């Protein structure tokens, strides 16, 4: 029956057009469901897979027209837009931006994606050219500069004449005041542009970069999508054609846009998984979709989880999307042995050549592990391989390759492993990778998954579901009869959805309610009209209103249903507590965004009773397999032959046309009355996994990933609960795990300068509190002479106890925006004594056996010669740091509970040994060298690197470096150690864990009176941020590896009693022997983000006049250095502004004949027209209207031009 109770007259086709396969579910007029699978690209056989599938199911020949009258609807998800984005094959696009912002989307937030890559590669931009337009609106909706449309006209015409037809229009604060964008869009339409995307329509949300990227992506992808849709529509005629959006709802073909299409295919899978799980009686579900190259996971508890900002293929998408986490582990993920560790992925064997078993000479992949273990049987797998596509999987080739690898493993490690044990080991790593992905969307966000069902689908899902459930402590797995084509099935079950959102950014109070009601009603009317226009009546439409709330000063907005102010605050606090474990009573609540969702209900899940294909419920065969670490005999069943109520005990294999499900030992599968396979854990799993303490290459990789996962979960908690911009937005923090002696085991790094120095903080706590550390204690310090770096970097350290003994320490360090000092931001340019830089905290016990000493901490912050300006903000960030550490403590206890104390302690050592060996291998190929690098202030850093080939070790001797000086460029020894650790880690071209082992082969020599070993009372603020950069470039110079980067962080700090803000500015990176430097990016010891320009102007009384790449500032050479940037900020209130930098006199060096990078410059332009040139470390009082200009250095070039 249809929505109105009339019997359906025709077919419905639900289609998922994936990258490799297109899946189709056809619903016949009699209600019967038919599935079909075919290759997405097969040009010899058909033009389009979706249309061919419809023809096949209708029984129509290739040339005959498809009869419109026989089809009621086609509902489709497509990866056409996603693939165009990944492959950068969209339409030529022109970007129009506010004058001064031509490079803002390219610079974005200035961070590099991979911390330890010497060659920095940023995502390719989607737009082909950019035009600036004279206009400016401020954060208070004032038009500062009127729009010069006539000045833009000839440039738009030139782009059009050049063949460009897509235009993206992104203006500062255009989401608030759209008039200028609308007028440019009208002009573009007059000229003839066929795709016009304006930022206020595409994504009406604050954040210039996210909104801009989304608008460009929409302009870039929509024409490709439109051509595809038009081709389908032309063949189908007037058939009702709908497409799946990234948000999980359907949309009529004529309304479907590029920005909606990014997750079109995966979203169908989530909808299918959720709707079929609800039908089966499960309302708490982890969806698990495992394909050939990747696995998608999502969390569902009574409602879809969406995000409003995410990064896809390097593009920030600011549009509502289902929260789906993807991990590069699929059936085709490569299985490799690197001499010490087993590695799975991220590289994939692809469809061609595919895994070794596919008969194309491919490498070993996860699929081959299951063949080796007897879990995938050639005799029960479709014979589609070989030249004629009629041969079975090649099990012999798989055994051959695993046998060869087992010999390689034995030669390298002395450990003898059978081919089955190797395959089982690789499988374990893949399973742990996928389980860690599930933790990111569940455990990390405060959900306990043990009472959830794992809804498993995709071609390879059923082979691994029991194993993943075991790792996560889940006891139920659901495998739907359409698990192999569930994404397509989900298209049919999806509702039509229209979402609208708008930025509000106002305090939540009763006085705001009229505005909320009015704007929610306005959005609801728009969304409901869109649903009604798709032929859905009011009686089948429901509308939901939401407000996204956040604490004042926080950036973590959580969605709550619209209601009374009291109800919304209560719902927000409940959600916040369940996610982060605490709330902030007394803190104001901000209504950040509103959103409305209109839902047109289109189709209900139908359940046909399951009838077994035959009465005989007997196995097809019994085969040899390897499960649970042992050889077993496992029966093989055809899924269709299992009757309702039939039970299959593991170990067993259940095969069907599109998938194989493995029932592991201790599990039992039951066929339900409606054809679902429900797998349940029936034998209690062992509380503890016995794996021993000797170094196993499989468990080495598992523990590497587990330690890293815990550090990342700590980082997630800190970022989302901190109040200061530095932590939550600039990501100027690091979280790490240490052993009981203070040696680094694993970290979630954002700031390399923190990495080698946090261990010193832990060791300082151990030294100063020997025998006195108790469970429930937590310590705070920033003392540069006792484990700290500079005063704003405050470290919180928590011991992890078991049976009265310290097992680990967890620690996190965050850069606090102000800890006192002579100037706001605690970075005076002329400090000569530590007291001038703020509050020195030495070994303060913040939590004493569970008692939180907040009042005492505030007293410390207020006690210095120059006390902290905003202690409440410091306390809020410290509380977030404690919460992050508590997350680490909980997860480490879980790990010890699972593997046992002895094993965990042993692997803490093994992961460090592995990193040590990786660095020793690199040292083996280095040569001796020395280098002296002068600084602007007349000091210098000298280093001599001596390589001992036999011992595979290095001595790094800084003798010749200047003595401690009466300035603030003195660096604690911990900072120097961090720089050395970073450089040696970057020499390893591999993803090795960053831990204490990296420094074991390196001996550092620092002379007694040395600026790299600061002693009290030396000022150190620039030692951390500036001298660390000098040390890294000096080391690269000595090793002859690459030219100098900009060599400074360009610290720019401004503020008054009300506001304090701190930013570091990017510049050019150095060129190397086979690569150019990168423009406008953070290098080496920092990687902090910049606040979005619109957010900056919304929060602070400043106007960002321009931010652009400084062309020509990179050094020349065979490979040129990266260019620096130019940034102009106009002040709207009286403030003190400080620049703390370097390379204003000494240029960044070129290498091997390459040219030097240009030096940086800074100056102030006064309202009276005068200009004041500044030094590298300077301070000025800024008055309203004054402009502070900073030009950052370029990187050096490599090799001579000729």
In short:
This protein has 24 helices and 54 strands.
Structure, explained:
It is a single chain. The longest helix is centred in the first third of the chain and has 29 residues, at 208-236. The chain starts with 10 loop residues before the first strand and ends in an 11-residue tail after the last strand. The protein is of the alpha+beta class and 1202 residues long. Strand 33 (667-671) and strand 34 (677-681) form a beta hairpin. Helix content is 29%, strand content 25%. Mean pLDDT is 90; it is low at 1-8. The strands form 13 sheets. An eight-stranded mixed β-sheet has the order 19-14-13-22-23-34-33-30, with helices on both faces. Strands 36-35-39-38-37-40-41 form a seven-stranded antiparallel β-sheet. Strands 3-2-1-4-11-12 form a six-stranded mixed β-sheet. The chain is built from 24 helices and 54 strands. Helix 2 packs across helix 7 (208-236) and helix 16 (697-721) packs across helix 21 (901-923).
List the defining traits of the structure above.
single chain; 1202 residues; alpha+beta
């Amino acid at each position: 029956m249809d929505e109105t109770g009339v019997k359906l007259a025709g077919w419905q086709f639900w289609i998922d057009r994936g990258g490799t396969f297109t899946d189709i579910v056809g619903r016949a007029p009699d209600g019967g469901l038919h599935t079909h699978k075919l290759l997405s690209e097969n040009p010899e056989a058909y033009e389009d897979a979706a249309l061919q599938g419809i023809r096949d199911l209708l029984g129509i020949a290739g040339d005959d027209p498809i009869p419109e009258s026989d089809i009621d609807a086609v509902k489709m998800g497509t990866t056409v837009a996603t693939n165009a984005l990944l492959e950068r094959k969209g339409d030529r696009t022109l970007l129009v931006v506010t004058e001064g912002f031509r490079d803002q989307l390219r610079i974005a937030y200035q961070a590099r994606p991979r911390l330890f890559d010497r060659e920095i590669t940023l995502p390719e931009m989607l737009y082909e050219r950019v035009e600036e337009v004279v206009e400016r609106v401020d954060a208070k909706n004032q038009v500062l500069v009127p729009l010069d449309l006539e000045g833009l006209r000839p440039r738009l015409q030139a782009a059009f004449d050049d063949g460009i037809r897509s235009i993206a229009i992104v203006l500062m604060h255009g989401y608030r005041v759209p008039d200028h964008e609308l007028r440019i869009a009208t002009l573009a339409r007059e000229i003839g542009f066929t795709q016009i995307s304006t930022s206020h329509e595409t994504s009406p949300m604050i954040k210039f970069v996210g909104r801009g990227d989304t608008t460009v992506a929409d302009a870039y992808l929509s024409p490709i999508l439109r051509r595809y849709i038009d081709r389908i529509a032309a063949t189908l005629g007037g058939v009702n054609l709908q497409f799946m959006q990234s948000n999980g709802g359907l949309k009529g073909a004529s309304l479907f846009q590029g920005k909606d299409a990014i997750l079109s295919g995966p979203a169908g899978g989530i909808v299918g998984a959720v709707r079929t799980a609800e039908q089966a009686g499960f309302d708490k579900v982890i969806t698990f979709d495992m394909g050939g190259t990747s696995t998608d996971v999502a969390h569902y508890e009574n409602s879809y989880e969406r995000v409003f900002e995410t990064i896809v293929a390097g593009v920030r998408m600011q549009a509502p999307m289902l929260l789906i986490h993807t991990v590069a582990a699929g059936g085709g993920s490569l299985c490799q042995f690197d001499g010490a560790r087993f590695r799975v992925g991220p590289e994939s064997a692809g469809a061609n050549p595919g895994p070794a078993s596919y008969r194309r000479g491919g490498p070993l992949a996860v699929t081959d592990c299951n063949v080796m273990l007897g879990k995938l049987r050639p005799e029960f797998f479709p014979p589609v391989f070989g030249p004629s596509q009629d041969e079975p999987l090649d099990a012999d080739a798989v055994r051959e390759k695993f046998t060869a690898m087992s010999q390689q493993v034995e030669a390298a490690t002395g450990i003898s492993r059978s081919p089955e044990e190797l395959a089982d080991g690789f499988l374990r790593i893949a399973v742990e990778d996928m389980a860690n992905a599930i933790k990111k969307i569940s455990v990390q966000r405060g959900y306990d998954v043990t009472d959830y069902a794992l809804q498993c689908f995709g071609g390879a899902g059923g082979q691994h579901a029991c194993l993943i459930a075991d790792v996560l402590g889940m006891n139920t797995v659901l495998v739907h009869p359409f698990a192999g084509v569930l994404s397509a099935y989900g298209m049919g079950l999806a509702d039509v959805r229209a979402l609208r959102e708008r930025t509000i950014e106002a305090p939540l109070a009763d006085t705001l309610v009229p505005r909320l009601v009015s704007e929610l009603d306005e959005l609801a009317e728009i969304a409901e009209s869109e649903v009604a226009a798709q032929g859905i009546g009011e009686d089948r439409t429901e509308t939901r209103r939401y407000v996204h709330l956040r604490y004042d000063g926080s950036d973590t907005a959580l969605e709550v249903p619209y209601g009374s102010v009291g109800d919304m605050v209560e719902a927000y606090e409940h959600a916040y507590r369940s996610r982060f474990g605490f709330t902030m009573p007394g803190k104001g609540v901000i209504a950040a965004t509103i959103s409305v969702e209109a839902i047109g209900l289109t189709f209900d899940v139908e359940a046909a009773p399951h009838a077994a294909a035959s009465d005989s419920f007997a196995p097809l065969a019994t085969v040899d397999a390897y499960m649970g670490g042992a050889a077993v005999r496992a029966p093989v069943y055809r899924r269709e032959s299992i009757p309702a109520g039939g039970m299959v005990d593991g170990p067993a294999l259940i095969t069907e046309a599109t998938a194989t499900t493995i029932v592991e030992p201790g599990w039992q599968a039951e066929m339900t009355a409606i054809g679902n396979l429900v797998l349940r854990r029936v034998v209690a799993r062992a509380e503890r996994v016995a794996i021993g303490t000797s170094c196993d290459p499989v468990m080495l990789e598992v523990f590497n990933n587990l330690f890293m996962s815990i550090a990342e979960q700590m980082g997630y908690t800190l970022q989302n609960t901190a109040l200061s911009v530095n932590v939550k937005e600039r990501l100027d923090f690091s979280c790490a795990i240490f052993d009981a002696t203070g040696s680094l085991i694993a970290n979630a790094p954002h700031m390399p300068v923190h990495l080698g120095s946090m261990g010193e903080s832990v060791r300082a706590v151990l030294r100063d509190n020997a025998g006195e550390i108790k469970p429930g204690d937590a310590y705070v310090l920033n003392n540069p002479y006792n484990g700290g770096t500079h005063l704003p970097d405050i470290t919180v350290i928590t011991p992890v106890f078991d049976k009265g003994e310290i097992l680990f320490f967890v620690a996190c360090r965050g850069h606090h925006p102000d800890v006192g000092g002579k100037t706001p931001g605690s970075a005076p340019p002329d400090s000569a004594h530590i007291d001038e830089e703020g509050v020195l905290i030495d070994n303060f016990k913040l939590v004493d056996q569970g008692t939180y000493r907040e009042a005492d901490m505030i007293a410390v912050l207020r006690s210095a010669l120059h006390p902290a300006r905003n202690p409440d903000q410091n306390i809020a960030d410290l509380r977030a740091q404690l919460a992050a550490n508590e997350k680490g403590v909980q997860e480490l206890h879980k790990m010890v509970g699972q593997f046992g104390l002895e094993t965990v302690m042993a692997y803490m050592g093994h992961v460090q040994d592995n990193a040590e060996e990786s660095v020793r291998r690199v040292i083996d190929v280095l040569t001796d060298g020395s280098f002296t690098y002068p600084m602007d202030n007349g000091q210098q850093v000298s280093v001599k690197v001596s390589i001992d080939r036999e011992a595979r070790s290095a001595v790094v001797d800084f003798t010749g470096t200047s003595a401690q000086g009466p300035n603030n460029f003195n660096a604690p020894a911990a900072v120097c150690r961090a720089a050395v650790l970073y450089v040696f880690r970057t020499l390893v071209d591999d993803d090795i864990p960053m831990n204490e082992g990296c420094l074991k082969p390196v001996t550092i020599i620092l002379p007694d009176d040395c600026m790299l070993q600061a002693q009290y009372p030396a000022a150190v603020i620039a030692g951390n941020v500036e001298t660390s950069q000098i040390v890294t470039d000096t080391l690269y110079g000595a090793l002859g590896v690459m030219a100098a980067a900009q060599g400074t962080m360009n610290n720019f700090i401004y503020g008054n009693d009300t506001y304090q803000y701190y930013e570091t500015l990017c510049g050019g990176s150095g060129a190397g022997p086979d690569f150019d430097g990168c423009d406008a990016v953070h290098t080496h010891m920092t990687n902090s983000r910049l606040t979005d320009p619109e957010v900056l102007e919304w929060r602070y009384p400043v106007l960002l006049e321009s931010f652009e790449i400084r062309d020509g500032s990179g050094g020349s050479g065979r490979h040129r250095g990266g260019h620096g940037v130019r940034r102009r900020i106009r002040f709207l209130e009286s403030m003190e502004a400080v620049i703390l930098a370097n390379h204003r006199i000494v240029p960044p060096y070129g290498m091997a004949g390459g040219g030097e990078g240009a030096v940086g410059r800074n100056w102030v332009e006064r309202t009276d027209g005068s200009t004041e040139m500044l030094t590298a470390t300077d301070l000025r009082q800024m008055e309203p209207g004054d402009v502070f200009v900073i030009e950052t250095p370029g990187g050096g070039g490599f090799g001579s031009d000729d």
